[in-house]
Design a protein that fits this description.
2 domains, three-stranded antiparallel sheet, Zincin-like, alpha+beta, three-stranded mixed sheet, 8 strands, binds zinc ion, 191 residues
């Protein structure tokens, strides 16, 4: 699973380089990518470290002074485990979204972020947006969608559809079939 993440990440980096974006550490800092250790609702996140003092911005809101940095030297991208069950296309879309957060002035979903997203969408045919649409992404990946995190992963032996359940009673596999009529099989039990 982890190798798959690295492989898709490298594909993203190559594609971004091919459309002229500078991903060298000198420009955007160092990026590390890993699976999220916790079960997150979010697709992914990008943790920023080592703020660049040359990009310090001070804002005054009333009497309060707020210090912000617009460039960081270190980024850790975390992708949620459940995202790895989705189509490669959707996983890469998530990775692309998080890579944009590594660019200067892109630590939020503001103007600069949108500019990169638009450019990448147009040049490479991605669909990067502020937030993913879980319902759509699960449907595209042939996975039955429910909001919660699941303990059991069941697969249809005929059409390959994945079904997630938190409880499984003993006669589940005797009682139920996939909508396509296929036999169901328990393929994973998660903690
Ligand atoms: Zn984001
Ligand atoms: Zn089926």
């Amino acid at each position: 699973m982890h190798n798959k993440l690295i492989e898709l990440y490298e594909q993203c980096i190559n594609e971004l380089t091919s459309i002229g974006l500078d991903l060298s550490p000198k420009n955007i800092g160092e990026i590390k990518i890993q699976l999220s250790k916790r079960n997150n609702k979010r697709y992914g996140c990008c943790k920023q470290e080592e703020p660049d003092s040359k990009y310090k911005i001070t804002q005054k809101i009333g009497r309060r002074k707020i210090v912000k940095y617009e460039r960081f030297n270190k980024h850790t991208i975390e992708i949620s485990k459940w995202v790895m069950d989705l189509n490669d296309e959707i996983i890469k879309n998530t990775i692309m979204h998080e890579i944009i957060h590594c660019f200067p002035f892109c630590n939020n979903h503001g103007k600069e972020f949108k500019m990169y997203a638009k450019y990448i969408n147009e040049k490479l045919g991605y669909d990067i947006s502020r937030l993913g649409n879980k319902k759509e992404d699960f449907a595209k990946s042939n996975i039955e969608f429910e909001e919660k995190q699941y303990k059991y992963v069941i697969k249809c032996t005929n059409c390959g559809k994945l079904i997630y359940r938190n409880r499984l009673n003993r006669d589940f596999f005797r009682k139920y079939r996939c909508k396509c009529g296929g036999k169901l099989l328990l393929i994973e039990t998660r903690n």
